[in-house]
Amino acid sequence: MDYASSGVDIDSESKAISSLIGALSASSRESGVIGAPVPLPGGFGGIIEFGDSRLALATDGVGSKLQIANHLGRLEGVGIDCVAMNVNDLICVGAEPIAFVDYIAVPETIPSVHAALGSSLSEACSIARVTLAGGETATLPGIVKELDMSGTALGWFPEGGEITGSRLASGDVIIGLPSSGIHSNGYTLVRAVLDRSGLTLDSPAPFDVIHPGREVRRFPEENGEVSIGEVLLNPTRIYVDPIIDLINLCRSGEGPCDIEDIKAIAHITGGGLSNLLRLHESLGWHISNPLPVSPEFEWISEVGDVEIKEMHRTFNMGMGMAVAVSEPVGSIVSSWISKRLPGTRIVGEIRDEGHKVTHVDSRISFDHY
User: Fold this and answer.
1) How far is CA 246 from the centre of its chain?
2) Bridge partners of 285?
3) Model-wide pTM > 0.90
4) What are the DSSP calls for 96-153, one per residue?
5) What is the rounded end-to-end Cα distance, in angstroms, of the chain?
6) Which domains does the chain have, with CATH numbers?
7) b/e per residue 184-204 (b: at least 16 CB within 10 A)
8) Residues 79-132 pLDDT 10s
9) Which residues lie closer than 8 Å to 221 by C-beta, 6 or more apart?
10) Which residues of 26-63 are buried (b: 16+ CB within 10 A; e: fewer)?
């Protein structure tokens, strides 16, 4: 099985996005004016001028993970997923998230559903340290068949403070931060594999759920075996702490390295390791010491007969975020982060051997995003 055969073709999506961008008109605001666009490679967030600061915007949704949450009636974590997918993108450009707005579409209005979503969003904004500045709820019978949720996050950084990958150099080291599981992408394939397995979402997880660097969030009042539904709905990790704290301390001169030593940050979402290629036009990334793969990924690969390269292009495979720093400070920064997020470690290095991602497993390589 692969992601395309289950309904989502990453290459086709990339072409569609390119077509969309090509059809967009230029901004009506010119450079030097508040709101003027600021070119920034990588595509993890849109940047605009705002006086001596820069504002960053990111928008995303929970995706088809919501279908599992809707089926089980378990919405406690979906607000966390929604906020995480947005603020984690802002972090990648060096922006501190400061506010969030949500969009909720439902086929009918059910107060208990909105209450659960509100509680989840409130918890997420507390973890991400952002203000929930508003939102919109639309009741769309006939258009929307089940709950859908998306949002937009606003962040900022001082002028000249962007982190883009442009200063990457051969020999820089890659620090991997562990994920909490599947996060919020690839669920079209996940659901197809679940169907093939013959299991239900209430079935006990057919693997050992214990994994270093993460815990599975239990459903309220559940105290028996961890179900596969609980594993699949484990909320996406929010990386504001420790990454924004690291950036702010380094900007102030009180961190474990100079801010110039933080070269690039990548959110490992749809596209998997190929996301790294967004951050530099010519240098390559080599993963020589990957983080341990979460057991649910091994189950997906085995039951779905999904090739290892396809797994690493569809899922985070245990590494939800990667930070590239100067080699002399690599161990210091890795140790600093790991004290806040256990399981963090150096996983590879930047190489001047072509624009590609390579891996200690020779079956895994990518030359385009």
Assistant:
1) 18
2) 350, 357
3) yes
4) EEEEEEEEEEESS--HHHHHHHHHHHHHHHHHHT-EEEEEEEEE-TTT-SS-EEEEEE
5) 20
6) 31-158 (3.30.1330.10)
7) bbbbbbbbbbbeebebebeee
8) 999 999 999 999 999 999 999 999 999 999 999 999 999 999 999 999 999 999
9) none
10) eeeeeeeeeeeebebebebbbbbbeeeebbbbbebbbb
Question: Over the stretch 293-325, which tens digit does the pLDDT of each residue have?
Answer: 999 999 999 999 999 999 999 999 999 999 999
Contact call for residues 162 and 307 (beta carbons, < 8 A): no
DSSP bridge pairs for 124: none
Q: Which positions of the chain have pLDDT values less than 70?
A: 3-11, 13-27, 41-43
Residue 158 tokens read as 């001082």
Nearest Cα neighbor of 296 from 202, 228, 222 is: 228
CB 244 within 8 A of CB 177: no
Structure tokens of 268? Answer: 């490992």
